[in-house]
Every structure is written in structure tokens, then in C-alpha cells.
Design a protein that fits this description.
Elements (H helix, E strand, L loop, with lengths): L10 H17 L7 H18 L4 E3 L4 E2 L2 H10 L5 E2 L3
């Protein structure tokens, strides 16, 4: 599999690409072959955002994630927890 170099994109471009790829993935049939490159591109974008330190969210318990859905699920599953500002 070829690597997806997204290092030259700005944060705004990365976030836009992530939104567009996520929408494309949501519209595809489960298990579609087109999901593989889409997921690879999303992974490259997530990794780049994580390396740049953008989009990381911190919980009061110390849990941190740059994945929106994962962090929201954590907060939903732990009602006493809340998002903390980044140091």
C-alpha cells in the first residue's frame, strides 16, 4: 500500500479533507472495496493532525483523543467527566 503524504496541507485543508472523506465513507456500502483507500487517507490525516498537536481533546480523567467520535463516546459513557483545556 502506498503512503499518503499529507504533510504539505494546512490544518484547515486537513480538516476539510477529513470531513469530505468521512462523508464519502458514510455514503458507501459496508465492506465496499473503496473503503480501504478512504480509511488509509483518513488515517494519514489523523496521524498528521496528531503530530501537529491539533485537535487533541483532554478529559478530566486524563483520557485524550484526537478522534471526535471516540472522545464524544467517552464523555457519553462517563457522565461525570468533562473536557479540559489543553495545557
Amino acid at each position: 500500500m502506498r503512503d499518503h503524504d499529507v504533510s504539505s496541507l494546512t490544518v484547515a485543508e486537513l480538516k476539510r479533507a477529513k470531513r469530505e472523506l468521512s462523508a464519502s465513507l458514510a455514503l458507501s456500502l459496508p465492506g465496499a472495496l473503496s473503503d480501504v483507500p478512504t480509511l488509509a487517507q483518513l488515517s494519514a490525516i489523523d496521524n498528521e493532525l496528531a503530530e501537529r498537536g491539533t485537535g487533541l481533546r483532554l478529559c478530566s480523567c486524563g483520557f485524550a483523543s484526537n478522534g471526535e467520535a471516540r472522545f464524544e463516546a467517552h464523555l457519553t459513557n462517563n457522565p461525570g467527566h468533562n473536557e479540559q483545556p489543553q495545557p
